[in-house]
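Exercise 7 asks you to align residues with tokens for two separate proteins.
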Amino acid sequence: MEQDLSVDKPIFQQIAEKISAGILDESMAEGDRIPSTNEIAKFYQINPATAAKGINLLVDEGVVYKKRGIGMFVADGARQIVLNKRREDFYQDYIIPLKGEADKLGISNEDIHQLLEEER
């Protein structure tokens, strides 16, 4: 995990995103143990409750699971869950606003496609 946290989002959300990013880029594989709340808290110099809140987001999404007395682990299918969530977030955060602005400006879907192809 990277050391830096920003002020843009709540810290617990950033913790969940950093773990999700590790799962997505496969630096954390299914079945791997993730850092404990205390390890995360020490690394980022934050309250362990904040770290736990971030991890609990991932538990609620089915991305990680707890083995009592052993630790937290990346769940089977976690990468696909993260990928699906990121795609949905991308659609909501970028595609819908892009389409709305394009409609206001009279830019067609074909024009958008052409512009995207030019950027590749």
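Second protein for Exercise 7:
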Amino acid sequence: MLRVASVPASHLYVRHLSDPDDADPVRRLPDPVPADGRKVPGGWWPPLMLDPAWIQAHHAEFEVFHVHFGFDAIDPVVLRDVLDALATHRKPLVYTVHDLRNPHHRDPDAHERHQDLLVPAAERLVTLTEGAAQTVADRWGRRADVLPHPHVLSRERISRRRSQHDMFVVGVHVKSLRANMDPFPVLDSLVRTIADLPGAVLRVDVHDEIFDVDNHWYAPAAGEALLQYGRYPWVDLRVHPYFSDSELWDYLSDITVSVLPYRFGTHSGWLEACYDLGTAVIAPNCGFYPQQRPCEVFEFTETSFDAATLDRSTRALYDRFQSGQSAPRATWPGRRAERAGLASAHRALYEEVLA
């Protein structure tokens, strides 16, 4: 049995790196639970394995340390101490570069300081697309193995037949307006496009916490601006709490297209969920989304927006919908084989860094 301390082990991405038939000789240690029991989507928070004291106390329980997410919760000085502790106990580090730019940080400096420590210290690097691997090579002179993102949904949901809808529904879920989201130019453009497409609806979803004065995400001016889109008859505006996973999958199944209003980013679990469900995606060109899964692309970065490209992508998907064409969709046999390959690739990678 090969024991791996994955940070965080409870994240869905990490859980779906195991063999689908539970035949994997890799055992990932469970996440230590913080005293306050705090969780965020993707795991306990902050990840307690990212602590030199935890490594000192538990180094005999694992052979490999694999970082995915959560290092933004600690100071770079602490991260350096974590890396020193791993070196002291001769525990190889593997780092999967999910985000070249943290979608929760407007200023990239903090994320870059963390990565300037992690990337050189790692025995092996993994990322999800060739474009990200090239960026890693350009920035740090390191080679990263390219391995795809595993499935997000369960076998049952991936295999479930998609409901047929008469309406062409374009969805923009602005969540709680995290740092990389700028929905307003996107919505202004889509309002005009959808008005010109018979039988089309623009659905806008937003979390109710942006209207809660006591909430971290309180954004009354942005919230009021979003509410104004409800004045259009072809806009379906919904304010609600966070969806449960099941509610989120139902939402993505009910829309035809999901538009990602990101000014910056790298990869997307949301895109993977859409692929599992057969929901078309229009993604910005700021990351490597089209290398990750098939999708339409529009120009949207921190410094540019081309409304014509969003209009063109929307109309292309509308024409396909009208002609009865379905969006690309994963199959469970395909996802299962992909997951088995990921489990095998990670096992081989761990064995190589231990050799």
